[in-house]
Amino acid sequence: LRNMMREERNLLNFRQSASKHSELGSTYTLITGSLLAFLFIVIILLQLNRDMLLRKRAEKRLLQSEMKYRMLIENEGACSYSTNEQGNIKVNSAQVLELKGYTPEELAGKHFSMLVEPSGLKEVAPHYMYQIKHGQKESTLSFRSITKSGEIKWVEQFAVLVLRKGRPIGFQCIVRDISEKQRMKIELERSRAHYQ
Length: 196
Description:
Layout: H1 2-76, E1 79-84, E2 89-92, H2 96-100, H3 104-107, H4 121-133, E3 138-146, E4 152-164, E5 167-177, H5 179-195
């Protein structure tokens, strides 16, 4: 009977000891798992913060670049506008008032051909139709333009074909007045013709 009791006590002590080790193991596993989960969350938060900072920097650089581009165009005396694929003006800069005599609101939705001197349409329209048909990314064309007051100005237009999913959806254009340059060119040609 004593032996049995001793064996039961030893067995009980063994089970209690095993239970304590098991509880300690579970506790260590729980603590380790919690620490790893916390570390994982911290790493994810740091990565998200880094991504947000990179995005903010990129947005800031884009805004600065856009402002430089806009100032370059505005200081050059040029105006910019975009059209849809039919040639209707969607967006234009405030410099259009100085160059053409129209406010941006007056031109919104109008066809670009109203800005081209009528006899020049025979050259201008086919030029841009060719650019669309052949997917030519960009082109430059000089032509006579008509202002709101009816004044004729020579302009140079740089046009970029805008694509969406490989399909033309319009143009982004920069136009500048080259009337003085054109006048000087004509005078030079007259002078050369006179002396030959």
